[in-house]
Amino acid sequence: MKATQRDYAQVLRRSGAGCRLFFFCGQDEAGASTAVARLIADLPQAGERVDLSGSELKSDPARLVDEARSTSLFGDARHIVARVAGEEAHDALASWCDLADRGEMQGGWPVFVIATSATDKSRTAKLLLKRSDALVAVFYPPDLKSVTADVRTMADAAGLRLGGDLAEQIARAVNLDVRLAQSEIDKLALYLDAGPQSPRTVAQADYDAVGARTEEDGFMPLVNAALGGELKKLPSEIARMREVSLNPVGVALAMERRAAQLAALSSRIRPGEDMKGFLSANGVFFKEHREIGEQLGRWSGGKLERLVPRLAGLHRTLLANSQNAELLLAQELVTIARYASTRR
Fold first, then answer.
1. Are 214 and 173 within 8 A, CB to CB?
2. Distance of alpha carbon 215 from alpha carbon 218, whole angstroms
3. What CATH number labels 216-341?
4. For residues 321-329, average pLDDT
5. Which of 3.40.50.1820, 3.90.180.10, 3.40.50.1220, 3.40.50.300 would CATH assign to domain 2-138?
6. What DSSP element (H or E) covers 293?
7. Which keywords does this chain's UniProt record carry (predicted)?
8. Alpha carbon 301 to chain centroid distance?
């Protein structure tokens, strides 16, 4: 089965309970991760979570089916979550399909694969598209309008009355990342003691008290320095990251989002096209025209294809090494900036 980020829930409801494998791909890793979290929360018995990496599945393809058919230490339910890049999960999912076709995956635990940089045209996705026991959902980079709508929906569910201008402000502040947006809504609900049965109206002062830093004093100057190859500016931005305690994973997510945006724009721009007009026509916020135009000149389509999975790998590394995340991020930002500085 195939779906998008907007209709995957409806497709699943129509398909019944027979779907056991979920392959969520596309450039919006944040959206795919949020969708997986929602599906896991809706499981009758989620039980133990087993996390697998793309490198583990690539080196040991049988690991996936072994985990999906085994029981937890205490005999409880379990579910499998794999974060992979590109085609790393192909052989593992081919094994899953082979066993399922032989009737050996009945009763197997649900498997959720978040495949950064893969698409519905990939070899892995094609294994699953025609199967009734698997769902392929494509998550495209979100735009400001859709994330603003998502913020309003989150606020309604949390018992918050949120105006459209403030919802858009939150969407911009989290760089269109729905996971960070949900965190902002949760903080506001806690701050105002709001809930579905006790709704509260959110004022600008409330968000100023607990909200995330805006793009101007948050992640984006650091992201722009790295992707723009600004080697002289980068050290001061890294120092600022440490001084104000910017979340390394949040910075990495912002990098992923910008790289995905650049990849989408790079595929549409024509040689010799007026950059300002092109960016305006493609909905790029006018304050970002200079930075994004400069970055498009430094990162060609082929270089971006390598950058996107590299950033996904950085994200996984930071999650697995939280104590050293700040140092690891700084080292990678310097590497990316040096690479970008040579692209004219």
1. yes
2. 5
3. 1.20.272.10
4. 87
5. 3.40.50.300
6. helix 289-298
7. DNA replication, DNA-directed DNA polymerase, Nucleotidyltransferase, Transferase
8. 20
Local structure of residue 255 (DSSP, 8 states): H
* Alpha carbon distance 235, 232 (integer Å): 7
Length of the chain: 344
Are 142 and 171 in contact, with CB atoms under 8 Å apart?
Answer: no
Contact 183, 205 (CB under 8 A): no
Distance of CA 8 to CAs 13, 26, 27, 198, 214, Å? 9, 14, 16, 31, 31
Is 3.40.630 the CATH classification of the domain at 144-212?
no
**82 - beta bridge partners?**
52, 113
Count Cα atoms within 13 angstroms, Cβ side, for 127.
Answer: 18
pLDDT band at 216 (very low <50, low <70, confident <90, very high): very low
Rounded to whole angstroms, how far apart are CA atoms 127 and 326? 38
pTM over 0.70: no
CA angle 311, 245, 232 (to 5 degrees): 65
Residue 214 in this model has a pLDDT that exceeds 50: no
- Written as one letter, the residue type at 108 is G
Residue 113: pLDDT band (50, 70, 90) is very high
- Measured from the Cβ of residue 251, the count of other Cβ atoms closer than 10 Å reads 28
pLDDT tens column, 118-133? 888 889 999 999 898 9
- Domain ranges in the chain are 2-138, 144-212, 216-341
Q: What is the pLDDT of residue 211?
A: 66
* Mean pLDDT score, 284-294: 87
Under a CB-based contact definition with an 8 Å cutoff, are residues 184 and 227 in contact?
no
Mean pLDDT confidence for 196-209: 89
Residue with tokens 């606020």: 155
